[in-house]
Design brief:
Order of helices and strands: HHHHHHHEEEHHEHEEHEEEHEHHEHEH
Number of strands: 12
Helix content: 40-55%
Largest sheet: 5 strands, parallel
Number of helices: 16
Number of domains: 3
Length: about 400
């Protein structure tokens, strides 16, 4: 049941599992949704979605499966033109319980059948045809717990389709590109706890241990305060195919400067060779070998680039895209030097991950560095890799 819904969720990247799907089937078999599309929307979301970052994807899948019914547009227009703007139908609770309730499949099938056979007469107060002030599942100003509203340009009974259409959780998505605030949050994940400053904090356990070793004579042990610190190096691709992502990389750089005290940053174009640059215009060069040798291995390194270039730029001497630039070693060797020098290195790619396999240079770079998308979820995964022991 609802297999298409399961497939739609998986297509959009919602990590729904078979066990969760069975749990939803169990909830349906126990009639927990009470034939209500709205209740189905909420119950299915609570069972199938583990993170609010996937709520927007859930809404899109819900709309795909339950929000669009193919029909004769001309007939719908003529029906809407004939619907009366009457006061809504008022039913007692007992009368509401007597109204026939339909499953989603039944409602869809009957709606299409009635569109094919509907005449041009106005239907008022009925329980079958598309009309007004009736108990039919289709029409305006009536009542049906599984109804499809037509010609009623405002909501009386909040429906699941309307909830999904609002896509309230669009900003919670974990696959959208980052703003500066989000980047700061992610960078804070990779802070290391270090001790620095004067020894002005009492080490209670050390004091007890030292006192015991000193035959009970009190001996104070002082320790430096524990503080969180990031030692980070950013190596950023600038120019060419990275121009469309300049604003995004600028946000990353801005966030890093605000939150990282020990930040080193350099620029390159397409690939790293014997020189890195301290300015984005790449006018001021510094020796790549000098940077590697003089930077502690404890620095965490993030390379940012689309990894998109001619294979010769990676594999050949003098293969740099700049005709006048002479690289004494292939770029891929310099990239491997970066990887060997530092303990924790990742590559952030602003291009969608589904494109990476089609780009030879990207595939080669993926063999050297763990690569993640430059999105919220991608940076979270990259941060976890940087702090992993």
């Amino acid at each position: 049941m609802f297999v298409n819904f399961f497939k739609a969720l998986r297509r959009r990247g919602v990590p729904v599992t078979f066990n969760e799907w069975l749990l939803l089937q169990d909830a349906l078999s126990q009639n927990l949704i009470d034939s209500s599309l709205t209740r189905f929307y909420y119950i299915a979301r609570s069972i199938l979605v583990k993170s609010e970052g996937h709520f927007d994807k859930y809404d899109q899948a819900f709309l795909e499966c339950f929000g669009h019914i193919e029909s004769d547009d001309d007939l719908i227009r003529r029906i809407e033109e004939r619907l009366l703007q009457m006061p809504p139908l008022q039913l007692t609770e007992e009368e509401k319980r007597m109204v026939e309730e339909l499953s989603l499949e039944e409602a869809r099938a009957r709606f299409e059948e009635r569109l094919r056979n509907q005449d041009d007469d106005l239907h008022v107060g009925g329980n079958r045809a598309i009309g007004v002030r009736g108990r039919s599942p289709y029409g305006a100003w009536g009542y049906n717990p599984a109804g499809i509203r037509i010609g009623q340009h405002q909501s009386r009974m909040r429906s699941a389709i309307q909830i999904a259409e609002k896509r309230t959780f669009r900003n919670y998505r974990d696959d959208v590109t980052l703003d500066t605030r989000s980047i700061k949050t992610v960078l804070s994940y990779i802070r290391q706890v270090v001790r620095e400053g004067p020894r002005d904090m009492l080490d209670v356990e050390g004091t007890i241990d030292a006192t015991c070793r000193n035959a009970g004579e009190l001996e104070f042990i002082w320790e430096r305060a524990r503080k969180k610190r990031i030692k980070l190096m950013l190596l950023m691709d600038a120019g060419g195919t990275m121009n469309p992502y300049s604003e995004l990389v600028s946000r990353l750089f801005s966030a890093a400067k605000d939150i990282v005290k020990d930040l080193r940053y350099y620029y390159f174009h397409n690939c790293i060779y014997q020189e890195l640059y301290t300015d984005i215009e790449q006018m001021s060069a510094v020796s790549t070998r000098k940077v590697l040798d003089q930077t502690s291995r404890n620095y965490k390194v993030i390379l940012v680039g689309d990894a998109y270039m001619a294979p010769s730029e990676l594999l050949s001497r003098n293969g740099a895209i700049d005709y006048w630039y002479r690289n004494d070693r292939p770029g891929i060797e310099w990239l491997m030097d970066v990887r060997k020098r530092f303990r924790k290195v990742i590559w952030l790619n602003p291009e969608p991950a589904e494109w990476w396999a089609s780009v030879p240079s990207t595939r080669m770079i993926q063999r050297i560095f763990p690569m993640y998308e430059l999105t919220l979820e991608g940076m979270r995964s990259g941060a976890r890799a940087l702090i992993k022991a």
